[in-house]
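TL;DR need structure tokens for one chain.
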Amino acid sequence: MRPLAIQGELKRVRLHSDNNTVNATHRLRRFLERIQRRLAAEEAFTLVELTIVLLILGILLTIAVPSYLSFKDRAYKTAAKADVAQVIRSVISYGADNYPNAPADPNADPTDNGYTGVDNLAILATKYDASLSTVAGAPYVINPAGFAASSTDFCVTAAAGRWIAVQHGPGGGISVGTLFTPGTCTVS
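>> reply
TL;DR here they are.
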């Protein structure tokens, strides 16, 4: 192959300087004009399209709302049970430490023993668990009105949402229900 021979002169090209700038207001004005043209060309949604969207939203809500409420209800039930379990540890420790002339007597009363005086939340919070709330009824009640407490028996309740959790005595388990009977310390 033979190399190409260039005949004649090359065409001269004029270079423009880089100083040509477009000011910001002009660019913004052009941008807004393009958006206005585009929006003017679009049409609105039809009634059928809006109805279909509402129907789909309704179907999603019929699935999501009951699931959410069920989840929330289970969370309240678990919270009530956890509140009773938290305070029970302190109540059991109180009963073990509370005997006449004990070196670790929580209330320094030489005449009581066992669970007598356990309903004092300030003593439980100070001696056993600082995270316990000292506000009566929030979230738990020890020996509620109508329950006959003794040195060997107590009743602890906690409420969260519609659920009430109860433990009757040191050997009882935690029961959860919606209807509380204070005389027998039971829920159903």
